[in-house]
Design brief:
Blueprint: E1 13-19, H1 24-27, E2 32-38, E3 40-49, E4 53-54, H2 67-81, E5 88-97, E6 103-104, E7 107-116, H3 119-139, E8 143-152, E9 155-156, H4 159-172, E10 176-181, H5 186-190, E11 195-201, H6 217-237
Helix pairs in contact: 2-3, 4-6
Length: about 240
Amino acid sequence: MGDEKHRLRDIKYFIELHVEQGPILEKNNKLIGIVEGIQGISWLNVKVVGETNHAGPTPMEDRKDALAPSAKMVTKVYEITNEIEGLKTTVGKLNVKPNITNVIPGEVEFMIDVRHKDDEIRAGTIDRLREQLGTIAVMNNVEVTISTDWNSDAVLFSSEVMDAISEAAGVLGYSTLRLFSGPGHDAKYISKMADTGMIFLPSINGISHNEKELTLEDDIEKGANVLLNTILKLARAH
């Protein structure tokens, strides 16, 4: 954890420069993203339990296949998501047991990543997911347990810092767009002890966490210029 005496204590502003890791700036043909805050995030662990059995002799009507209702649950996650503006959900991890071709799956465990800038909407979505996935389990004669593995509330950044970033970009002639960050960043945590903001740069084709991820050197230079001028503006003001 490091020595307590080495930790930051006296800090007024924190500005983080980062690639967007998404497609919004490029889609809107904007050079600089002024980040308004970071979305809240919840990770839900869903465990569906049926009964493992042989695929050959077991009639379809006598099965307690954990995978079939799990597939319905994943579909339901995205159906609910499409009804709520700004909501993002991802099912990116799924484990099937025993994971054998000729054996009926007796247990499935998957994760749901839920994100929204409004914590109340995120919480309401989770309640709705619990109810509707539970209904699917009952209708398919399996058991489901839904637990929260991780939860992080949304954060709003300093309006003073956002305005300073906007002015710095304007002086340099760079177009801007205000947006929320989907991923968490260092700025999320530093915001608890300082007036905080973030500057986003375009990601080509919005690709991230992929070896094709790319932000052009020219865009990086523009971002560095905005960062420098934002710091100078805030320093002059204080």
